[in-house]
Design goal:
mainly beta, 2 domains, 6-stranded mixed beta sheet, 10 strands, globular
Length: 142
C-alpha cells in the first residue's frame, strides 16, 4: 500500500510502535518507573545532618559519604518515615550495631547521632522482612 509519498502505510505502521517501544525502554533504563526509582547518594561534611526518608522498602538517600579527610566524623541522621508501615534504621559495622532508632509509625521522625572513624558501614531497617526486600544502604567516612 502506498500513501502517495513513496513510503508505504505499512512501514509507517511499523515505525510508530517501534518508536513507542524505544521511548519506553529509555524511560525504564533511566530508572523512571515506580518499581525502579533511581538511587541517590549524598556527600556531606563532618557534623552534618542528613534527612533520610524511609518508605516501602527503601531509604533515600541510599548512600551517604562523609568527607572527613581521614579523621573521625560526627553525623546526625534524621529518619523520616514517609511510608505506611513502621520503619527504623540500624547503622552497623559488619554485624555490630553502632547506632539505631526504635521502630516507629508512618509520619514520624527519629534522630540518630554517630561518630565514626574512616571506613565503610551499612544501614538497614530491621522491621519484619524489610532488609530482605531491599531496605538497606551504605555509609562511608573518608
Amino acid at each position: 500500500m502506498e500513501d502517495g509519498h513513496g513510503s508505504g502505510i505499512l512501514s509507517a505502521a511499523v515505525r510508530a510502535p517501534a518508536a513507542i517501544l524505544s521511548a519506553c525502554a529509555a524511560i525504564f533504563a533511566g530508572g523512571c518507573s515506580d518499581d525502579d526509582e533511581p538511587v541517590r547518594t549524598v556527600t556531606v561534611r563532618p557534623g552534618a545532618t542528613v534527612e533520610m526518608g524511609a518508605d516501602e522498602y527503601r531509604f533515600d538517600p541510599v548512600r551517604v559519604v562523609v568527607k572527613a579527610r581521614g579523621r573521625k566524623a560526627g553525623l546526625r541522621i534524621v529518619l523520616v518515615n514517609r511510608g505506611s508501615l513502621a520503619h527504623n534504621i540500624h547503622v552497623r559495622d559488619g554485624q555490630r550495631n553502632l547506632a539505631s532508632t526504635p521502630s516507629f509509625r508512618a509520619g514520624g521522625r527519629r534522630p540518630v547521632k554517630l561518630t565514626l572513624p574512616p571506613g565503610s558501614y551499612n544501614f538497614l531497617c530491621t522491621v519484619a522482612d524489610h532488609e530482605e526486600l531491599g531496605m538497606v544502604g551504605a555509609l562511608e567516612v573518608r
